[in-house]
Amino acid sequence: MSLKIIPADESHIPFIFSFIQKMAAYEKLSHQLEVSTEQLHFHLIKNKSAHCILAIEDNIPIGFALYFFNFSTFKGKQGLYLEDIYVEEAHRGKGYGKQLFLALVKIAKQHQCGRMEWSVLNWNKPAIDFYKSLGATPMDEWTVYRLTEEKIIAISDISS
């Protein structure tokens, strides 16, 4: 069995959607899941505001990594933001997550990115250990803030 890493195409949308559902369940966040296959198609295929690579074993997708490019004003370069990485439970422990991650590192290098970043749930020790084993360091001096869609609309209405 050999693993291939390939860019996702239109035919992979149902697999990506399924992986996202399984990942949300693992992270105990299924109640927050709003994405649809139509939205994935729009952003990954039509608009290309996000990108996805797949791990393929025996012609079957068994994992994915979804990412997008951002920009650092401090570095003066674009960066790669890893939104999600997931490998099916039956295929974990084989180094496939590492191969997906290293494929992203190569993409970041090809695009001359100044950095790669991602978020990890504080309780997800396997993920934290995985990233640390690859040389990543936590950015404890930063706190992530978020405006929900509802807050964006409310604040926008106030400022109009």
Tertiary shape: globular
Distance separating the two termini: 58 Å
Strand order of the largest sheet: 1-2-3-4-5
- Classified by CATH, the class is Alpha Beta
CATH superfamily: Gcn5-related N-acetyltransferase (GNAT)
Report the uncertain regions.
none
Note the main sheet. 5 strands, mixed
Query: Which structural class best describes the helix and strand composition?
Result: alpha+beta
Domain count: 1
Strand content: 15-25%
The overall average pLDDT, rounded, is 95
CATH architecture label name: 3-Layer(aba) Sandwich
Tally of helical segments: 5
- Write down how many β-strands occur, each being a DSSP E stretch of 2 or more residues: 5
Give the CATH topology.
Aminopeptidase
**How large is the radius of gyration?**
17 Å
Helix content: 25-40%
Task: Write down the secondary-structure element order.
Answer: EHHEEEHEHH
Q: Features of this protein?
A:
160 residues, alpha+beta, Aminopeptidase, five-stranded mixed sheet, 5 helices, globular
Describe the structure concisely for a colleague.
The chain is built from five helices and five strands, in the order βααβββαβαα. With 160 residues, the protein is of the alpha+beta class.
Show the helix and strand layout.
Blueprint: E1 3-7, H1 13-26, H2 37-46, E2 51-57, E3 60-72, E4 77-87, H3 96-110, E5 116-118, H4 125-133, H5 149-159
Parallel strand pairs: 4-5
Antiparallel strand pairs: 1-2, 2-3, 3-4
What does the model show?
The chain has helices spanning 13-26, 37-46, 96-110, 125-133, 149-159; strands at 3-7, 51-57, 60-72, 77-87, 116-118. It is α+β, with helices and mostly antiparallel strands and 160 residues long. The longest helix has 15 residues, at 96-110. It is globular and about 60 Å long.
